[in-house]
Amino acid sequence: MIPLADIVPDQTARDMREPDAGTPLVRLSNVSKSFGAVRALIDVSVDIHAGEVHAILGENGAGKSTLMNILTGVLQPSTGTIEVGERNVMPLTPETSSALGIAISYQHPAILPDMSVLENLQVALPSRIFEAERDDHVGRRLLDDVGLHVPLNARVDALTIAQKHLLELAKALAVNPKVLILDEPTAALDQDATDMLFDRVRQLKAGGTAVIYITHRLAELRQIADRVTVLRDGRHRGSALASEISNSELLDLIVGRTLASAFPPKCPQSDPQINFEVRGLSGRKFTDVSFNVGRGQIIGVAGVEGNGQSDLMRALVGLQSYSGDIKLADRTLKPGELKDMAAFMPSDRHEEGLAADLTIRENATFASLDKYASGGVLSRRREHEKVQDVFSSLAVKASGLEAKVSSLSGGNQQKIVMSRALLSEPGYIIADEPTQGVDVGARFEIYRILREVSDAGTPVIVNSSDAAELEGLCDIVIVMSRGRVVETLRGDEITEARIVGAAVEADTHAHHADEARRSEGGFAAKFRHFAQTDNATIIPLAIVAVALALFVSGQNENYLSAFNLSNILILATALGFIALGQTIALLMGGIDLSVGPLAGFCVVIGSFFINDGNAAATMGLGFALMFGAAMVVGLINGILIRFANFTPIAATLAMFIGLQGMSFVLRDGPGGYISFDVIDTLTWRFGAVPVAFIVMVALAIAMEIGLRRARPGWQLRAVGSNEESARRIGVRTDLTFVLGYVGVSVLTALGAVMLMAQIGVGDPAQGVNYTLGSITAVVLGGTSLLGGRGTFIGSVLGAILLTEVLNAVSFLGLSQSYQYGFQGLLILAAALIYTTARRRREE
After folding, report:
1. Which residues contact 650 (CB under 8 A, 6 or more apart)?
2. 675 and 556 in a common domain
């Protein structure tokens, strides 16, 4: 073994191959990866052995996650090979990696926020795991194994950060992997969850599993790791047994320089002047919280995850309602002032801390633009100068201020969040898990800046699940349990043991398991759950449709006649089929503007073959050509979007124009009358109800069941919920998207068949209005325009209600302009209802 202290920093992995420790289970040889001109990995070679915990260390941006993404098939290396059991397994995909027994728990969980906890397990895990017993029993067991006590039907976006990480762990551990990759697994976990994880890792290790453990916490390495590898600037800087290398040597290799003490000196005054005070603060999940902060002091908030700490942080910055007093420099702040006075560093920087589509500069300054403006005109020079000053003090590593913030490593992204807090020149700073997922060097910079800000007189309140961090950084620590302060520690009382002991021994500790079980039972709980589901729109839509029918019938008794009801349902059938297709597009996070002209184009095609006097074979050919043309259109739309980098709107708008033009090329006016026998068959009724309508409803129900209970349905929603997460868990996103658009077009062709029966002639001008109509019906049905959430049954009801409204306008003797007005009002009402309901679910 070569001592790491003797390794030259620029030496590569080839120069320092370790002595043979047996045949490795996984061997990565000379792996390199470039993103344009940026070289993320350079000739990295690592051997992973069975029955060992191999820690991978390095600063954010060192290449750790890139290397793991290559091993799991999410990324392809530019050069290099990967061997599993002495077999070259290149090229890897997420599916083949999983088949080889490689599982990963990502630093940023690959979860699908719009789906339930159970559905996340079902779509991510092989179906064999659920074969032995009921899915909900398997799901409950998997969650209990990692100490995650939440309802299986809870939507994942309602979970806390820690709960999302536990769900990610549950998925990784469920497959009993040969190689388990844990990427910063404890970043958001409390001590109990961390201890549970370490116990499971030791069990896996004893069973021969190779565990790759990525961490920034050297204390964890000492508890769990057998071997350690250090990466820096994309290069392999050294590998050794964990027992043969000191922390100081590791730190030198990680940062490439000698580091001073991790924590800056604390406030020297024992009783400084109070500059921030909280008295009797109560709110959601916390009660009667009081504390004060003196000038130069940093106060920490500790406790087992889920006991009100994060809710307290959000209340202190005005993001949650509260009662009580918050005083800044002896002035009581009103709730409306908090957002202007406070700078918030949220625990989830991806969801709340950063705008991924904006540049680094824009993310750093959008909360303080008024400070760089004169007379309402922004001075870009002043903005750049200030940003550069703050970036220099925080040692932000970025290719340029105008690069996308998403291109930065996790640690540098957190520094951008901190930069925005500093640039806003706040009255006080609230930092919720400020070093979560941040490397050793970046942590030191954040600690230093927080201390400097505090010394300058700005109050700093830090919530952290890392007791050692609170011990080293804070002058005062309040420990919370079940929303109450159970102990306040000061000075020498602040030790890791006292913090952890106060949190876990409090008799007011929350019983999460009992609460989860209670939340899964009872009528009230079931009703609340239904109100949060995608199908919650069914009941109000049905009520509105019935109420409208009764109202119009009161104005015109012929409205509810068998003839008119049948007419409404026939019209709704054509729109309903097309709306079912549009629902698929919206579920994937896309849209299809071409469905209207496609329906008209299909009718024009049919009008050349499906005529009286033609043979059955000729008519059959006409139907085949209608569906064949639709499938080709859907395939082209999917390919344009997935492989030609068209946006869904651009691709389908181009198709809209093209199809409309082709319809007029085939027929310059109405012509080609459809066979009366075909029309009679398509419009055949069972009483007042058309059989085609019954078929459409049956199809919608079948599709709804598939959407909720079948893997293709889960994958469809997964792509729309979070495409990157879906790709990481093995969903073939490109194929799903292309097949989805083919499905949209096939369902549109079904709608075209019913449109053909309605108009009875090939008319190139018909069908266009179905684009707006289908979108209206789908939005009315409760499907999100953002993707991931929707319901086929709701779309059918939306189509019925929209058809009913348009029909009612005629019966009430109103002009055609009212049709468009009512249609617009329905869209607006549906969007407002959906947005309000979603906001309330998230609160």
Report:
1. none
2. yes
